[in-house]
Amino acid sequence: MKSSFRATISCTIAAALTAIYFLRPDVAATENTPVKPASNNACIQVQPAVDSGTGRAVHQQVLVRGGEFTMGHDNTYPEERPARREHVSDFYIDTHEVTNSQFRAFVEATNYITTAELQPDPSLFPDIPADVLVPGSASFIKLDKRPKGQWRDWWKFVPGANWRQPNGPGSDIDGMGNYPVVHVSYRDAQAYADWADRKLPTEAQWEYAAQASMQLKSTNGLTANTWQGFFPHQDKALDGFDGIAPVGCFQADKSGLFDMRGNVWELVADVFNPQPVAGHVVSDAVPVRVIKGGSYLCADNHCQRDRPQARQGQEEDFSTDHVGFRTVSPVATDAAAQ
Asked: In this structure, are residues 323 and 312 in contact, taking their beta carbons and an 8 Å threshold?
């Protein structure tokens, strides 16, 4: 179970490293053997981020015809309950997550500064010393990079980490234009959507669109960028990626959507209202938004949230290296009637 990201970051800065997930105790550990990821040349060709004629953002979108469906699930995680019938109208949704190139076009057009690049408000972190309250974001730390004996401490607040330099100062996104943008908060995603004249999907829209992702099949059984192996000790990278993948490297579902499972979690518009769960702390000070889809950190023994019904909470003003987003557009009334 994942605790509040705000609580996590407070503990992370104070104690340097803090775990925010827990392993299932009934799964035995496996040997930590380094594995070289396989090559993958199947990724889609992403369109230019901006139309040179209009200056508007370019998004590849597909039309999702509306309908009624069962949203949520009664038999997995408590926050997914209750299963209930919901209806959504027609809408367009991006075929893939917003990329670094698309987000860069937005920043260059607006001079926007992301949450991770801003000095945190001390009033929201009263227990953190001012000298360590600095701009940055949370990153997953691989086992060989953690202090000895701290194998459960796989999240770390990295000063200076943001969308431009995902691993902190000295890193960059050169050659990663078609990777999903990460280290972005809900505020950042909403600002991008406003600029692009789009919206973030509602949780119902996202979950409805994602249903087809569970029907994907492949010859090797790998249909999404997830963790193969015993988390957090070994990712065998059988899917070809030891970490985040470029967008569209796995088969699209029947709707033409890529990466609705795994790779990076995706922010949606809804406020996160979990069922009461012991030990799950949600701050009243900062609204918490829903994230959907799971990430490359989902494994058989951990997370298990790379499913349409799965959901987690993420503070509006916080970011990590495994959360991104995609956008939706409405269908004009006259077009929907055709």
From this structure: no
Supply 255's token pair. Answer: 């709707």
- Beta-carbon contacts of residue 96 (< 8 Å; ≥ 6 apart): 44, 46, 60, 180, 247, 248, 257, 258, 259, 326
Crossing angle, helix 100-110 and helix 186-195, to 10 degrees? 70
Backbone angles phi, psi at 25, to 5 degrees: -75, -10
The region, left, alpha or beta by phi > 0 then psi within -120 to 50, assigned to residue 216 is beta
Nearest to 78 by CA among 323, 314, 313, 310: 310
Q: Do β-strands 323-324 and 265-271 pair in parallel, antiparallel, or remain unpaired?
A: parallel
The token pair that represents 132 in the structure block: 């360590």
Give the span between the Cα atoms of 34 and 48, in whole angstroms.
Answer: 36
Which stretches within the chain are classed as H helix? Answer: 5-15, 100-110, 186-195, 203-210, 333-336
**Alpha carbon separation from 42 to 49, 202, 248 (Å, rounded):** 20, 30, 8
Superfamily of domain 1-21+48-338: paralog of FGE (formylglycine-generating enzyme) (3.90.1580.10)
Per-residue pLDDT, averaged over 65-83, amounts to 88
Query: Is residue 44 a contact partner of residue 96, using CB atoms and an 8 Å limit?
Result: yes
Paired residues of 328 in beta bridges: 93, 199
Per-residue pLDDT reduced to its tens digit, 99-153:
999 999 999 999 999 999 999 888 878 888 887 799 999 998 776 565 555 556 6
